[in-house]
Task: inverse folding
């Protein structure tokens, strides 16, 4: 029995009903979608039209910050010592490049030196905000600038333009005092945030520079100015297609800063050092204005504006003469014999008779040790005047403990040692002035001050340390004779005059005591037997200097060890110092000059250099020039008076031991008290 296949047919009505249900569902869903879309479009175009129009405009335009031109820094005569100059540069915008590596490869063919900084460039480009141009190279030559523009079509995301770059026209002459600018670092941003403040947006602009040292750092906010902005139209990819001039705002240049420095004096001060290391400060003793503040060796601050190569920086940092260190305010040195005026004032304050004589035989025996005088064989009988003139160590050894270290320290601080000054540059070294209180903290295992240590302090050795600026303040106060002059470096900021350094309290010394010390300084430079006679002759008519030499040990010497010849290892040489003021009969300018590890000593190395710097300061002063150029009085035809013959000798009448230590009330004049010279004018 065979079976046959069966064919079944579904019901036609059932199939038609299923189709209609699906049609209704799809149609209803589509209708609902159209209704929802229509409603949303109505909301966007009618209800929220204004809101989204604003957002669309904002997407169409970007506001790009423009760094402001940095404020100029000038010297007292209007000479620009830190300015701005036009600079061609090439920039890369990461978001406009198809392939950053490929772009940098092509750019490297045009500018080969960018290959050396490739890793740094990639890091900076990736860290920059979106669509923010990042400088790849600055200070392009005209040929480089033209080459980049010629191949601009082949370099997507690369552009070349001209901006203003910081420029220091005098190179190393102002590197330490003015400082330099450099790129903003992560530490700069962190320091601001650590204060609880929000970093300004301009700090994140790759072309912005911030002050790093000196005046550039301390007055950075004044010099920075106010950032401007360009309102630019961009396409969907963020590329600039046009600029909205009306919506842009110009940058405002920073404030102009005028310093008290004199360019000619500053340049000469650096020049006289040659290859030697040290610091020099020149001050106006009437108002404290600093005419020169130099550290040698120096460096070119222009190297740091675009980023100094690491090899160059390491060479500067590792050089034993430390060109990056400001030796005028940060470097401290034992003052040596230039400290003897301070010690002499302490002796007078203690009631020691300046006519008292001490016999120098070449040394002083104390506590089982012989403290040597610099002159073998000794100076013979010395009073205070001749001890300063001849720089006799034995005299100061012998009397030092009658004054005591605490009195010496107090007088030193009255003269300006062991202090920092508000000159607009922070971080100055305070130096060191030992006392009986200091030793308890400094030497807890041996907290007692030993009298033998006072002998070293009396001649500016031992623990005593000072900066060139403190030395200049000391000699300025001695020269002024009335006021405790304070240094001033910033003359004006944005046209606003800064306070004078002459508006200060009186000195706590009597006129008699100051005259004794200043007469000794005059003899140092003008008596034929003075330690700096040959090196102190200015050759400017009747204008003479008063000064004091110093040669300070830089290390301890073993018994019988020689201090070494001129060709000794540099780091083992002594320091040479010279302080002076001029004219000695009507003080106007003071100088302190230190040569680190000098070939010889104060009279041979420091004094001649200080003389040359002082001559420039005097020759630039109109009143001094008039005095120099006036005809000399006719030479006397009669016998020389006793007063003329004895110039530079100690005064005959000793100062009364009971003379008050406090200076009598000053006369009506507020200027420096005229020096009571034994030389007729």
Result:
């Amino acid at each position: 029995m065979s079976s046959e296949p069966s064919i079944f047919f579904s019901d036609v009505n059932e199939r038609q009903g299923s189709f209609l249900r699906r049609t209704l569902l799809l149609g209803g869903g589509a209708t609902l979608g159209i209704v929802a879309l229509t409603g949303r479009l109505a909301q966007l175009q009618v209800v929220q039209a204004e809101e989204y129009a604003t957002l669309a405009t904002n997407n169409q335009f970007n506001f790009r910050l423009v760094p402001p031109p940095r404020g100029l820094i000038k010297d007292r005569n209007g000479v620009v010592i830190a300015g701005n100059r036009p600079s061609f540069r090439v920039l890369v915008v990461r978001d406009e490049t198809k392939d950053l590596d490929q772009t940098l490869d092509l750019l490297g063919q045009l500018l080969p030196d960018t290959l050396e900084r490739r890793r740094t460039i990639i890091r900076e480009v990736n860290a920059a905000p979106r669509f923010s141009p990042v400088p790849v190279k600055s200070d392009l030559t005209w040929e480089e600038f033209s080459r980049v523009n010629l191949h601009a079509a082949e370099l997507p995301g690369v552009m070349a333009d001209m901006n203003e770059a910081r420029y220091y026209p005098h190179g190393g002459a102002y590197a330490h005092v003015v400082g330099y600018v450099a790129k903003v670092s992560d530490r700069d941003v962190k320091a601001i945030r650590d204060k609880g403040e929000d970093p300004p947006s301009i700090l994140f602009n790759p072309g912005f520079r911030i002050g790093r040292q000196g005046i550039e750092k301390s007055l950075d906010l004044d010099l920075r100015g106010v950032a401007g902005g360009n309102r630019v139209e961009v396409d969907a990819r963020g590329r600039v297609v046009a600029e909205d001039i009306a919506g842009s705002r110009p940058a405002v240049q920073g404030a102009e800063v005028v310093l008290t420095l004199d360019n000619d004096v500053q340049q000469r001060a650096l020049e006289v050092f040659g290859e030697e290391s040290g610091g020099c400060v020149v001050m106006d003793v009437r108002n404290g204005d600093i005419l020169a503040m130099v550290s040698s060796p120096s460096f070119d601050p222009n190297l740091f504006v675009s980023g100094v190569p690491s090899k160059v920086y390491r060479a500067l940092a590792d050089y034993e003469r430390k060109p990056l260190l400001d030796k005028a305010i940060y470097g401290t040195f034992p003052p040596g014999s230039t400290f003897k005026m301070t010690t002499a004032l302490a002796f007078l304050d203690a009631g020691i008779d300046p006519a008292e004589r001490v016999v120098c035989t070449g040394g002083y025996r104390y506590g089982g040790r012989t403290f040597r005088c610099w002159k073998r064989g000794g100076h013979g009988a010395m009073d205070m005047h001749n001890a300063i003139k001849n720089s006799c160590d034995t005299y100061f050894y012998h009397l030092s403990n009658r004054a005591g270290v605490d009195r010496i320290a107090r007088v030193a601080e009255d003269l300006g040692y062991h202090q920092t000054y508000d000159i607009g540059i922070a971080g100055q070294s305070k130096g060191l002035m030992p006392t009986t209180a200091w030793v308890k903290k400094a030497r807890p295992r041996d907290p007692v001050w030993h009298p033998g240590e006072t002998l070293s302090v009396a001649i500016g050795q031992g623990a005593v340390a000072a900066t060139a600026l403190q030395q200049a303040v000391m000699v300025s106060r001695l020269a002024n004779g009335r006021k405790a002059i304070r240094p001033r470096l910033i003359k004006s900021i944005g046209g606003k005059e800064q306070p004078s350094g002459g508006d200060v309290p009186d000195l706590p010394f009597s006129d008699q005591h100051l005259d004794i010390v200043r007469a000794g300084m005059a003899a140092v430079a003008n008596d034929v037997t003075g330690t700096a006679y040959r090196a102190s002759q200015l050759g400017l008519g009747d204008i003479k200097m008063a000064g004091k030499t110093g040669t300070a040990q830089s290390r301890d010497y073993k018994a019988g060890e020689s201090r070494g010849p001129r060709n000794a290892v540099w780091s083992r040489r002594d320091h040479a110092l010279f302080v002076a003021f001029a004219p000695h009969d009507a003080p106007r300018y003071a100088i302190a000059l230190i040569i680190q590890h000098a070939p010889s000593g104060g009279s041979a190395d420091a004094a001649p250099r200080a003389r040359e710097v002082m001559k420039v300061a005097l020759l630039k002063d109109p009143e001094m020039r008039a005095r120099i150029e006036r005809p000399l009085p006719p030479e006397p035809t009669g016998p020389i008076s006793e007063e003329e013959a004895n110039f530079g000798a100690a005064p005959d009448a000793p100062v009364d031991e009971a003379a008050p230590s406090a200076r009598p009330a000053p006369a009506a004049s507020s200027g420096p008290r005229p020096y009571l010279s034994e030389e007729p004018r």
Residues 235 and 241 are 7 Å apart (CA to CA).
